[in-house]
Amino acid sequence: MTHRGYLLTAIGTFILLALGNQGYVQFRRISCWSGGYSQNAWMAYCNSDQYGVYDVEAVWFESETEISQRLATAKVLTLTDSHLQNALSLGNADQWFSSHHYPVYMLGLPTAESGFGLRILEKFKPHPAVVVFDASPYFSGRMGRFEQILAEVPAGERERVFKLHDFQSFHYNFCEKWNWLCDRNFAYFRSRDDGHWIFPQKSGRFLIGTGSIPNDEIQFATATRPDELLDKYPEYLTNAEDFVEHLNISRECIVITAVPTEWPKADLAKYLAKSLGVSLVAPELPDMKTFDKSHLTPESSKRWSQAFLTGLEPILKKCDASSN
């Protein structure tokens, strides 16, 4: 074979490999559940190594352009990790806030901690009447593993995020026509209106990630482990005090709660609320269950959210009136 022949063969092989790789990438992404698009939402996560977590980066880089406006107009803002976000989303809290005419944005992120929450405040400068935190423990002063990516700002990260944004238009249109090729991989979406998460219903079509779907079939009791965080309470309080100082709203309008998980968090929530002089709304209900030891089942989410919102309502009324 001539030198030119070798060169053409090498170039052809490279092109085929590149096309094959791109085809694999698109195939893995196309398999993601697509049902959230029709509910005015964007895909925040898909159980695929070719999509993964888009939630955190979409917020930070504002690739979903409505986020800044929603944060600016929110009367109620939640800054938490996934525990409260999951409970309120499955508990239909978005419908409750809408019916009570309280603009809300639920900014729970997968592994969020207070270090990233402070960055969110500095970047977007929201001015809600009420802010809600989950004891979680959230007030570590650090950032979670997904949020840490933003601190490191690897080359090409912003470009990757906007490519995921652009992919969603293609994915939506593709799945409208060839749905039988889609919806085989677990994904969840974030509502453009108020930030709540939208999950798929359990379906036999899912081949990958079926255990990630919130359900009532798998149940674990809550508060089954000892409180191993007790020694860190003072550290959490120091970080929480720093966070509260950045909020610039009345302390009675800052709410601490404790969503049940396998870890007992009610004592931490009470400790923080009392020490900070903020409001505590942390209903302790019997027979709370999780589907993965960390996140409440749909049924438990509905019961817990109803109790939480009932306790939150008088605070909302008072704080909303004083902010007008």
Describe the protein in words.
The chain has 324 residues and is of the alpha/beta class. The protein has a single domain (36-323), classed as Rossmann fold (3-Layer(aba) Sandwich). 46% of the residues lie in helices and 12% in strands. It has 11 helices and 11 strands. The strands form 3 sheets. Strands 4-3-5-9-10 form a 5-stranded parallel sheet, with helices on both faces. Helix 4 (82-90) crosses helix 11. The N and C termini lie far apart (81 Å).
Strand order of the largest sheet: 4-3-5-9-10
Q: Regarding quaternary structure, how should these chains be classified?
A: single chain
Q: Major β-sheet, in short?
A: 5 strands, parallel
Show unreliable segments: 5-24
CATH homology group: SGNH hydrolase
- Strand segment tally: 11
Average pLDDT confidence is: 88
Reading off the top of the CATH hierarchy, the class is best stated as Alpha Beta
Helix content: 40-55%
Rg calculated over all Cα atoms: 22 Å
Shape: globular
Tell me the number of structural domains.
Answer: 1
For the record, give the distance between the C-alpha atoms at the N and C termini, rounded to a whole number.
Answer: 81 Å
Q: Which structural category do the helix and sheet elements fall into?
A: alpha/beta
The tally of helices reads 11
What share of the residues does DSSP label as strand, in percent? 5-15%
- Examine the secondary-structure arrangement and name the CATH architecture: 3-Layer(aba) Sandwich
